[in-house]
Structure to design on (85 residues):
C-alpha cells in the first residue's frame, strides 16, 4: 500500500543520516495478484525536503519489465522532487 511505502521511506531516514529516501513495494509477478491489486501494481514512497510523497502505479509486462519500469519511475520522480527544493 502507499501507507507502507511511506513508512518504509520514513523509516529509512529515521535509521540513517540520509536526507532523501525512496521505497517501493508491490506485486512484480508473475504471481501474487489479489483483488484490487493486479500483477504490476507498485506503490512508491519518497521523502525529500521533509515531505513524504506516495504514488501507486500499475505497470505492464513480465516481472523483469515491471521491475525496470519501477526503477525508472522511482528515479525520475526523485529527480523531480529534488528539482522542486
Amino acid at each position: 500500500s502507499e501507507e507502507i511505502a511511506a513508512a518504509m521511506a520514513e523509516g529509512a531516514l529515521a535509521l540513517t543520516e540520509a536526507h532523501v529516501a525512496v521505497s517501493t513495494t508491490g506485486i512484480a509477478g508473475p504471481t501474487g495478484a489479489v483483488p484490487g491489486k493486479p500483477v504490476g501494481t507498485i506503490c512508491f514512497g519518497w521523502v525529500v525536503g521533509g515531505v513524504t510523497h506516495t504514488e501507486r502505479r500499475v505497470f505492464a509486462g513480465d516481472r523483469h519489465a515491471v521491475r525496470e519500469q519501477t526503477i525508472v519511475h522511482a528515479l525520475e520522480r526523485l529527480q523531480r522532487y529534488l528539482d522542486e527544493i
